[in-house]
Design goal:
The protein is α/β, with parallel strands linked by helices and about 525 residues long. β8, α9 and β9 form a beta-alpha-beta unit. The protein starts with 7 loop residues before the first strand and ends with a strand.
Length: about 525
């Protein structure tokens, strides 16, 4: 869980690069499924809310039109669930009404933490198949602390530029001190600008908000698609409200039992190293590949040498801004493209340019992942990501612990290990104590929950999907022999049909179903 993203989120990287005029194919999917049959009738199996929360559960959303057939509204929730009669905050919500015989609503979360569910829902026609859009209102929301829902703020745009550009692989005590100073500045900025909100942005708080949202939408049970970190949010919801689950799809799963440092960060670094090898193997089949030797070890060493050189002599920046394209920005650009195999053609171009000293395309890639706009401003994704992670999990309290964890991760993942591990350092200085624990989530009493895992997922390793499906008392694992982050709507008709059948009919695939690789 790092300073650029935690366990990752679906960013529709290819589509975003098209918008940046980089000539990448738009993000789309094939094989729309339309499973036959009607779903079972919904049953009112929900427990009544406490008297103190009843007014929240009974509120009505005032929907207003907000372009292109979408409707927008606000939902009131307590700032502090321990004091539901106290201060309120508002959760921003958007929906695209179902086009056919409606079953109910499907809530969407793209991951992060810090990803905007409103932005994600606006892409509903690529996020969901026509079959699901016909039967469900597609509903997105910004979780508390994110985007339009009581957002956390910490740093200005120039301050975030400096923070993200800090040397993420410190080699000297001076570089460690500089990284620690930046991490401390981040934490202090959050305290200065968002002190009241920081104790109340946990995933458990967001899950409780989600149950109020479920009720205000008129759904007896929750239907949900969560990707990446969104799988953790969904699993926490199911553990808190197992009897209110209708159908949950958790795609690109997080293992809730693992501590971020060292386990999650180390596993994620290994995942990116695996994804890089998959990219290189594909690259070797193209005439535009900048690795003429077609040797795996030599090619990885060449990338490592380019990144190391950028640590001393920054790459050229032709974007028009004044940022220095050092090792951290260049590494982040590589990481961004590894999320989605549809971005591999752009990574070939970016690396070809970087080997000639030009880091412009790598920087543009990096900007996509951290949600930096062309005017130098950012969404609050990075700030929300850190704020949520730091209250959700316990983190080491000494620099020495990070140094040791980074050294170990570097041996396992030479290109990404230390970079990913040091990214969690602001949590050492966080002004709010973590109340979270890393433990298995069982959701005893929930109906079947579908966990989807991609075997060469760089951001959420396949083993995490296996672990979550095993931990959940009703977990069902659906696997995809593929590359890239998450599986649904990434060109596998097998995955799409299985997910759609489950969402509509509440019938999961057979346990351990494996969908074949799409070539």
């Amino acid at each position: 869980m790092t300073r650029w993203t935690s366990v990752g989120r679906t960013r529709h990287t290819a589509a975003a690069l098209t918008a940046a005029a980089l000539l990448v194919p738009a993000c789309s999917a094939q094989g729309d499924a339309n499973p036959p049959g009607d779903p079972p009738a919904a049953t009112a199996r929900n427990d009544a809310p406490s008297a103190a929360l009843a007014t929240y559960y009974s509120q009505k959303i005032n929907w207003t039109s907000c372009r292109e057939g979408f409707q927008c509204g606000k939902v009131n929730v307590p700032l502090d669930y321990a004091d539901p009669g106290g201060e309120r905050i508002q959760i921003s919500v958007i929906r695209l009404p179902a086009t056919g015989r409606r079953i109910g609503s499907i809530l969407l979360n793209p991951g992060g933490p810090g990803g905007s569910g409103i932005e994600y829902a606006r892409a509903a026609k690529t996020v969901l198949t026509p079959a699901i859009l016909s039967r469900f209102d597609a509903v997105g929301f910004d979780p508390r602390g994110v985007g339009e829902s009581a957002p956390v703020h910490c740093l200005t745009g120039p301050q975030l530029d400096r923070f993200i550009g800090l040397d993420g692989t410190p080699d000297t005590s001076a570089e460690v001190d500089a990284l620690a100073a930046g991490a401390k500045e981040f934490a202090e900025g959050c305290q200065a600008k968002s002190a009241k909100l920081l104790p109340h942005v946990s995933t458990a708080d967001a899950a409780r908000d989600m149950d109020i949202l479920r009720a205000t939408l008129g759904d007896a049970g929750l239907t949900y698609l969560g990707k990446s970190y969104g799988t953790y949010l969904g699993a926490v919801y199911a553990d808190l409200f197992p009897k209110k689950v209708r159908a949950l799809v958790l795609d690109g799963a997080v293992d809730p039992a693992l501590p971020p440092v060292p386990d999650v960060n180390a596993a994620q670094a290994r995942g990116f190293q695996t994804a890089l090898r998959s990219f290189l193997a594909n690259c070797f089949t193209h005439t535009s590949c900048p690795f003429p030797s077609k040797d795996m070890d030599e090619s990885q060493s060449r990338i490592a040498a380019m990144l190391k050189k950028a640590d001393q002599t920054p790459l050229r920046n032709s974007t028009g801004d004044t940022r220095t394209i050092d090792e951290s920005w260049a590494t982040l650009g590589v990481v961004t493209a590894l999320y989605d195999k549809r971005s591999w053609p752009i990574l070939r171009v970016a690396l070809s340019q970087a080997f000639q000293g030009d880091g412009t395309t790598l920087l543009r890639l990096a900007d996509i992942l951290v949600d930096r706009r062309q005017d130098g401003t950012y969404s609050n994704q990075t700030e929300a990501n850190m704020a949520i992670n730091c209250v959700d999990h316990p983190y080491p309290t000494t620099i020495e612990a990070y140094e040791q964890a980074a050294a170990t991760a570097q041996k396992e993942s030479p290109l990404f290990g230390a970079y990913v591990m040091w990214g969690s350092l602001p949590c050492k200085y966080w002004p709010v104590p973590s109340e979270g624990t890393d433990k298995p989530l069982k959701a005893e009493g929930a109906p079947p929950i579908l966990v989807v895992g991609t075997q060469r997922d760089p951001a959420t390793p396949y083993q995490w999907a296996q672990a979550l499906a095993t931990q959940l008392s009703s977990g069902v694992l659906l696997s995809y022999d593929g590359d890239g982050h998450t599986a649904y709507r990434t060109n596998s008709s097998c995955i799409d049909k299985a997910v759609d059948t489950y969402l509509i009919n509440q019938t999961p695939p057979k346990p351990n179903t494996l969908c074949p690789k799409v070539t």
